[in-house]
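This is your field. Pick holes in the following sequence-structure pair:
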Amino acid sequence: MHLIYIFLALLTTLFSQSALQLSLSGFPARLNPLLATDSVSGELSGWLFDGLLKYDKNANIIGDIAESWRFIDEKTIVFNLRRDRFWHDGKPVTARDAVFTYETAVSDRLATPYASNYRMIESVEASDDFTFIVRYKAPYFKTLEMWLSPLIPKHALENDPDLMTSSFNSRPIGNSYYRLDELVISRNVELNAFAGYKPRPPLIDKIIFEYVQEPSVEFLKLKSRSLHIGALDAMQLYRQIDEDFKKDYQIVETSSFAYSYLGFNLRNPKFQNPKTREALSYALDRQKLIDILFFGRAKICDGTILEGALGYNPEVKSPKQDIAKARKLLAEAGYDETNPLTIEISTNTGNATRMYAAQIIQSQLAEAGVIVKLRVMEWQAFLSRVVHARNFEMILMGWTVPLMPDPFTIWHSSSDKAGGFNFVGYRNEEVDRLIELAERTSDRNEVARLFREFSAVIARDNPYLFLYVPNSIAAISRKIEPIEPTIIGFEHNRYDWRILP
């Protein structure tokens, strides 16, 4: 065993050179994982914080901070934690931290949509520093999946008077294999390998995230070889890279676990008539969107549960464009040429594809006589002044979805609250009932049946107009090894990445 650790140390010395150069499309808001609700904050938090469990490359759940676990009965699980995991300030990660994470998430100390992850828990207990016991109210279909969520440190936060504005949000104390000393606004974000990570620190000793607001700038940095990994859009893949680029970068293309949508503010009277929402759905040509934006490298999104996920309903389909039907429905809702429907669509900068999509949608809706104004804002302003403030008519956004669907956080009526993800204000008692039935069973077949029913109701109500599921296209420097794309992407083994000379 001693020789193995010497060998690992030699590997670390050999390959731990230079920095991994990555980019961020916006500046992170807060790096407490319970408050990391935007994609940029979530991405950075994922490098800094671990949970009890994680996915392996084949999407199987395996231990992370938890060394093992066992079910006492169908409602009680006991986790045994590793004794060699530490916070970045050197304090051990214990079962007390797991209890504190749960108690903080469900408390009124902060407004977090992640509180709903713990809604089925009856009680938690740390019987000692390394034994964590969870008792559920009923059998639950996500008994294990919920503990993929990151832990937060009790010793650093239990006496903090205001977690929403805590200095921890910019100087987090994490427990993963990279640490962040301080987040400085508008500067590059620099992560350093955590020397106390077991069984060894990562093989790359530094990661530098450069703030790149525009995708065109990210592409130029890829072409100048100043980024190791970056996203490509279909146009760049087809027409703007050459063979020399492909010699230096491996192109990895997969179907993403994400979709884009137009969401209605259902508190607004003009969208409370279901005929208005249905009319706008018929006015869209989703396939043309895909052809123009992605050269076909995407698929139409038919609902919130994507194809391949538990509970996907193949009978639910987004409608094909039918301008005549759209105009008829609008007339029935009280709109015509003398009284046209006028709407404002809000979206964010930093995503060129989404901004182009907004312009195409504006043109398509005009064919049905709808007047569309576009409101485009920088990401942080968009989050604070539009999304969190619920200050929009329609919103063009996207969701990244987990492998195991959980409709509660977006669609349940109780998630229509400050800090909740149901910011369109959707409320439907039948949807609430189906979600609640699904979460109280451990029978995956029954969960899938209930989710299919849920999808049909969402499709009927049109709280969102589902648009497309884009392919994820990444350019990865051939100096980064090993890259092994799987069902969960190519970053599952980043702890083992190294940069070749």
In short: The chain has two domains: 2-206+479-499, 258-472. The longest strand covers residues 464-477.
